[in-house]
Amino acid sequence: MRLRDTIVAIASPHGTGAISVVRLSGDEALQIVNRFLNKPISRPRYVHHRELFDTSGSLVDEVLVVYYKAPKSYTGEDMVEIYCHGGILVTQKVLDVMLAGGARLAKNGEFTKRAFLNGKIDLVKAEAVLQVIEAKSEKALKLALDNLKGKLSEEIEFFRRKLLDILAKIEVSIDYSDDVIVDDSEIRHDIVSLLEMLRSKIEMAGKGLHLSTGVTLAIVGKPNTGKSTLLNRLLNEDRAIVTDIPGTTRDVIRGEIKIGGVHFVISDTAGVRETEDVIEKIGIERTLREVQKSDVVIFLLDATTGFTEDDQYIYELIKETNHVVVWNKVDLASNVQRIGEDDVLISAKTGEGLRALEQKLLEKVRLIVEEGELSHVTSKRQLEYLKRVYANISNAYDQFKKGYPFDVISIDLRKALEEFDELLGRNYMEDLIDTIFSNFCVGK
Ligand SMILES: Nc1nc2c(c(=O)[nH]1)N(C=O)[C@@H](CNc1ccc(C(=O)N[C@@H](CCC(=O)O)C(=O)O)cc1)CN2
Ligand SMILES: Nc1nc2c(ncn2[C@@H]2O[C@H](COP(=O)(O)OP(=O)(O)OP(=O)(O)O)[C@@H](O)[C@H]2O)c(=O)[nH]1
Ligand SMILES: [K+]
Ligand SMILES: [Mg+2]
């Protein structure tokens, strides 16, 4: 067994609570903790009631302590968890005692990294741990928990198996080309069907990512239509500056809310119009970029002005996007020229029509959300690897169609196999692993 230093961290949220958890992992975890208890513990997976003292023998706290004996622990190493009272000072003292006893402060995600390095979880599951913690909607949480149980890992394993079968058939025909007659049409069929499965996975995956990150919504319109007022109304908060001066908002302003269980990331943008103002111009460029990035766009019109030339200009820019046409300020006027059949009428000021708008938004993102649920791809990294796998197999298939020899074709298929392994973290590179785990909080 490898001897690694013993790490320690506060595993519970920082701040005052009823109980805090301080945990240690490593060969010396038990020995370090026992030094400071009124009576040492040794029985694994048992809750011990103890007193904990500091290096000078003063009582720090009355605690509960659990020992997890390697390899039956979260990290696969010897671990100890200390449950102390949840005060900031008490918790910090417990941590300090462990540091004084020889443990080292854990880095972000180091416990989970060790679980991965010790083969307790694969990389996709490690990502799922982070996503369980960060889940902002019921659906994102469910996906993350599914993946923690191995849902996506199993699917990847299934695709990988199919690829292995194809490679095996090809290798056999390379090695025993004199004795074995390979059925080209069978290999062709296998490759095509694998490519098809991967393609549909990748297509859905693009949508699945929105579940983890939230659905993005941009509010755009000419100056003074009430975009910032609407943002504030949706967030129920005074986030953006509202004035009656056109061109008030210059930068993109974001806020997050949940509508009907769906997590939205909303951006209020600079009003779009022809302008010579340099700063405003930059703001408008940012608006347009925001439109490109968004899953759904609110095109906000002003019922006091009607549909103007500026509106026409903006409409040309957004009409191909997934958008909702919204007429604002209906409390003041009803100069509404419906553009489509489902224009929504609201007053951001009084709140009239807001429920209908929320329903319309949910309708517009339903596909994204539903298909996303099916995919279980929850990170850009996972999607990136699936795309690379697809590209390699697709190359191999092109060569196959051109009648290249099998030993050439197998090169790209092997590359795809390696991509699968990296996706699961089998062939991991140190840098990649560090990037993934550094997103965790200390103690995880
Ligand atoms: N107190 C506490 N609660 C926690 C955790 C923890 O580390 N400590 N977890 C941490 O994130 C999560 C639970 N995940 C865990 C996963 C595996 C093992 C574990 O001991 N696995 C052993 C034994 C399996 C068994 O016998 O059931 C193993 O895999 O060998 C513990 C917690 C959430 N709640
Ligand atoms: N009566 C009424 N006034 C509104 C409504 N919505 C916004 N306003 C007013 O319209 C003016 C402009 O509102 P903003 O929210 O700043 O408009 P904006 O689209 O963000 O403007 P820019 O950032 O300058 O592009 C303010 O005086 C608001 O109080 C509404 O529904 N009814
Ligand atoms: K304004
Ligand atoms: Mg504004």
UniProtKB/TrEMBL annotation:
Signal peptide: none annotated. It comes from the Bacteria. (6S)-5-formyl-5,6,7,8-tetrahydrofolate binds at residues 23, 81, 120, 444. CDD domains: trmE, TrmE_N. Residues 214-366 form the TrmE-type G domain. Binds 1 potassium ion per subunit. Mg(2+) binds at residues 228, 249. It is an enzyme of class 3 (hydrolase). Its EC number is 3.6.-.-. Keywords: Cytoplasm, GTP-binding, Hydrolase, Magnesium, Metal-binding, Nucleotide-binding, Potassium, tRNA processing. GTP binds at residues 224-229, 243-249, 268-271. Its main location: cytoplasm. K(+) binds at residues 224, 243, 245, 248. GO terms for cellular component: cytosol. The keyword Cytoplasm applies. GO terms for molecular function: GTP binding; GTPase activity; identical protein binding; metal ion binding. Its cofactor is K(+). NCBIfam families: mnmE_trmE_thdF, PRK05291.1-3, small_GTP. Belongs to the TRAFAC class TrmE-Era-EngA-EngB-Septin-like GTPase superfamily. TrmE GTPase family. This is tRNA modification GTPase MnmE.
